[in-house]
Amino acid sequence: MNPLLDQLHPYPFERLRKLFAGVVPDAAHRPISLGIGEPKHATPPFILEALAANTAALAAYPPTAGSPALREAFGAWLRQRYAIEIDAQSQTLPVTGSREALFALTQAVVAPSASGSRPVVVCPNPFYQIYEGAALLAGAEPFYAPSDPARNFAVDWSSVPAEVWARTQMVFVCSPGNPTGAVMPLAEWQQLFELSDRHGFVIASDECYSEIYFRDEPPLGGLEAAARLGRTDFRRLIALTSLSKRSNVPGLRSGFVAGDADILKQFLLYRAYHGCAMSGMVAAASIAAWGDEAHVEANRALYRDKFAAVTPILAPHLDVRLPDASFYLWAGIPAAYGQDDEAFARDLYAQYNVTVLPGSYLARTAAGRNPGAGRVRMALVAGTAECVEAAERIARFVAEGRPA
User: Fold this and answer.
1) What is the distance between the alpha carbons of residues 119 and 382, in angstroms, rounded to a whole number?
2) Which residues are in the Aminotransferase class I/classII large domain (predicted)?
3) N or C: which end of the chain has fewer CB within 10 A?
């Protein structure tokens, strides 16, 4: 077996299962999970209809690059959403969800260092766990860029040592962030682009939460930032997005990558061997989904109403505020628990049958500090009534104080 597999950490949900092992929650409360970021809003009927109308496509192997019509659907959406110019045929490719694409892109980009030193992949901290796993299995060393809690855990790119940048081949950006919901501003994009020009690394911009936001201005995307700064060739930049959160189809496994045409040409070569091609049936449903904004606006309104109802219930009891975007609350736990987010999550589950994810499971200890410690992630993906009930239970739990 590949010895690099031994470097992988247990996935957060595996750790959560072990944390709760042997705990019997109070049967007076029905279970409510805020632990997993799986959308629970209804899938739009027109997407289901497009799937059903294209079952004949199952009789043919799909092209790895997707059809011209599929890629044009990606391009049309990018032009409408970000007001950028893009050649959909050479600067976009279909992927079977952003998770698969993040992993595969890393394998295609990272190369053994000519100097013999181990290549580096820089990722935010806290972070989506695929970044680390993809880096390790590509033979790279993950570097966990420091984050600033005072700026909603924004990445402090300037604190990454010069010797790390010199070995860096890839940088992961997550904007809007998981778990923080923070959006990276233009000035930080400019800083990262300048570093990329200096050191030659590729930027992978994970933007799967871009359409769930709470203010009037939509989140800035990586391609949009590049275009504003005159980088219209999107050099060394690949943006990744999917339909899972935007259109409530996490089981469809449909998304796309867009950006530097030279990188995508090589990525297509990798994918021809990697074997991930989007079914024609899924492609037809995807074209329909990317071409419609009404369901996205309705979905966003549901999240806005939900967060408006839940956040005021929790704010008097936890360090929590409305994020820029995403469907997570990134909450600081009460002082009675110190930094022990595991104990908080376990006690909450035992007493009120509500599941939240310890923040330390989403980060790594770097420079003697785990930036997720003392926080929990709450995924507000269920209906408003269920999320409100969970928030009310959490508020009661905190008000009662830590059990002796």
Assistant:
1) 41
2) 32-393
3) C
Could you give all domains of the chain from N- to C-terminal order, each with its CATH number? 3-42+295-400 (3.90.1150.10), 45-292 (3.40.640.10)
Going residue by residue through the chain, which has 404 residues, state the pLDDT in tens, using 9 for 90 and above: 999 999 999 999 999 999 999 999 999 999 999 999 999 999 999 999 999 999 999 999 999 999 999 999 999 999 999 999 999 999 999 999 999 999 999 999 999 876 788 999 999 999 999 999 999 999 999 999 988 888 888 899 999 999 999 999 999 999 999 999 999 999 999 999 999 999 999 999 999 999 999 999 999 999 999 999 999 999 999 999 999 999 999 999 999 999 999 999 999 999 999 978 999 999 999 999 999 999 999 999 999 999 999 999 999 999 999 999 999 999 999 999 999 999 999 999 999 999 999 999 999 999 899 999 999 999 999 999 999 999 999 999 999 999 87
For residue 139, count CB atoms less than 10 angstroms from its CB and return exposed for 0-12, middle for 13-18, buried for 19 or more: middle
User: What are the CA-CA distances from residue 312 to residues 66, 70, 135 (Å)?
Assistant: 45, 42, 39
Rounded to 5 degrees, φ, ψ at 169 are -110, -20
Question: What is the 8-class DSSP label of residue 36?
Answer: S
Element (H, E) at 202: strand 202-206
Calculate ∠ Cα 58-61-66, nearest 5°.
100
How does DSSP assign 278-325, residue by residue?
Answer: --HHHHHHHHHHHT--HHHHHHHHHHHHHHHHHHHHHTTTSB----SB
Distances (CA, A) of 23 to 53, 256, 347, 364: 47, 41, 9, 26
Q: How far apart are CA 93 and CA 69, in angstroms?
A: 12
Report the distance separating Cα 371 and Cα 300, nearest Å.
29
Residue 129 per-residue DSSP state: T
Evaluate the CA torsion angle 16, 361, 107, 328 in order and state its sign.
positive
Amino acid residing at 254: S
Per the DSSP assignment, residues forming a β-bridge with 32 are 354
Residue type at position 359: G
